[in-house]
Amino acid sequence: MKLFSASQIREIDQATIENEPISSIDLVERAASTCSDWIIEAYDHSVSFHVFCGMGNNGADGLAIARHLALAGYSVQVFAIAHRSSGTSNFTRNIERLAEVKLDVHYVNAKKEMPEVDETAVAIDAILGIGLDKPLRGILKDVVQAIQEGYDHVISIDVPTGLPSDLDSTIKLSECVEATHTLTFQFPKLSFMVAGLGEYTGDVHVMDIGLDEEKIHDIDTPYHLTTGYDVVGIRQDRKAFSHKGDYGHALIAAGHKGMLGAAVLATKACLRSGAGLVTTHIPSMGCDVLQISAPEAMVQLDHSETSITSIPIPKRITAVGIGPGLGREKSSFNALTALLEDVQVPLLIDADALHLMSITDSWSKLPANSVLTPHAGEFHTMTGVEFGDSISRLEAARRWAKDHHCIVLLKGAYSAICDSSGNVYFNGSGHPAMAAGGSGDVLSGLITGLLAQGIAPLKAAILGAWLHGRAGEEVAIDRGEHAVVASDLIDYLS
Ligand SMILES: NC(=O)C1=CN([C@@H]2O[C@H](COP(=O)(O)OP(=O)(O)OC[C@H]3O[C@@H](n4cnc5c(N)ncnc54)[C@H](OP(=O)(O)O)[C@@H]3O)[C@@H](O)[C@H]2O)[C@H](O)CC1
Ligand SMILES: [K+]
């Protein structure tokens, strides 16, 4: 799914109006209908709706939704916030249409004019949408504060009021509605994808309002959200007459004394990826641990008992993953730099290997199209920058991927996969239950296994992140969100 900026959405809007054609007021009506249908489906008549409307088209949506809900027999009160001298024509027309359902509009000019709130009241936030272009102040700020203080349940239309739509750190967040649900038109907004901003949306529900498909196709954007449709076909179905040699041979280099579990997790995840064969290079002390934990894998023992000091790459290897539990010994760094010289197959670098590369600034040795899988802390070490917010961190990851001609999978919610052309693929699967030690080891083993099967690095990262997140969603349902451990993810990989 493509993701667009507010100005691009306006372009698509305009194309829809011209090409369908449909009048702007009817597009508002169509957008509002998708929301009222959703609300009617989700709430019974014991609820009373307090609809807060700005004076733009977001407000026009709110007025039309209020009308639809009144027609459906709900208790509705409408509050218009006078934040500008006049409303858009769609706003004004929808004010007039309230007469059809005998709804009055209460104009709110001061916080004290906000309504009394009882426990049946649900707020519908149709104050500002993609038109927000500055931090809230004055009456808008007061009203949003009052909504925050007064309502336990808020439905935001298109965008929570106060939240910028774009990845634009110049609009500093001041006051912002914290929605329970956000009913957003056609696409999630870019700001929904990053920590520090995405938290305000609550559950996001994408409302298809039939925008111009051709224009959506024609407008270029570097931002994408991976859905299940996007990963279909990345991994080919297995042929009847095939054998394990057809599915590659991954080498995992991982583990040191006290951190052998990371090697086990990465190995087992790699096996679950569908790779034909997996060999794990570990310190010799780990031999029994690995053979017992992952009998399907072969083991290549290091000369050292406790850490990795040299990593021979057997000829039959088709991809290498290095890093989980590697440790930060000088000897492991020497093994890593020697591997960078030798490796001729796709490479994934994770965890301590990222750290070692960073502290010795060995990035000039990075093979093109390598896949790096840092979390925010590791990315800080890679760049030496303490990022103040997720937007600047993401922009830095995009630059890093371009400058080093590699794939950077910046882990988080949502994980962002940056390619060397500046594109960003936000991963649409996942669950907070996955925030547990070892989850990253599973991801790096999984992606290494996909690389070993000949899947191109970008696609392997996208598919790996998707499968990893889907496993997390499924296991959270079965085990509950507090009891998930990284090993569970492996059992749920599909
Ligand atoms: N394709 C679609 O997604 C459709 C979306 N629709 C809805 O339309 C809104 C966008 O409507 P728009 O009128 O462009 O903008 P808003 O309603 O979000 O904002 C209204 C105006 O408010 C002013 N503004 C912006 N920021 C502030 C602020 N911090 N304080 C005060 N006022 C502010 C600004 O006007 P100014 O001239 O005052 O700058 C905004 O223009 C979209 O979100 C959807 O809800 C349509 O329903 C159909 C298709
Ligand atoms: K809104």
Give a structural overview.
Residues 227-494 form the YjeF C-terminal domain. Homotetramer. Helices cover 38% and strands 15% of the residues. With 494 residues, the protein is an alpha/beta fold. It has two domains: 6-219, 3-Layer(aba) Sandwich (Rossmann fold), CATH 3.40.50.10260; 231-490, Ribokinase (UDP-N-acetylmuramoyl-L-alanine:D-glutamate ligase, 3-Layer(aba) Sandwich), CATH 3.40.1190. The protein has a ten-stranded mixed β-sheet with strand order 8-17-16-15-14-13-12-9-10-11. It has a seven-stranded parallel β-sheet with strand order 3-2-1-4-5-6-7, sandwiched between helices. Helix 8 (260-272) crosses helix 14 (439-452) and helix 14 (439-452) packs across helix 15. The structure holds ligand LZDS7PUF and potassium ion. Residues 58, 125-129, 156-159, 161 line the site of potassium ion (K).
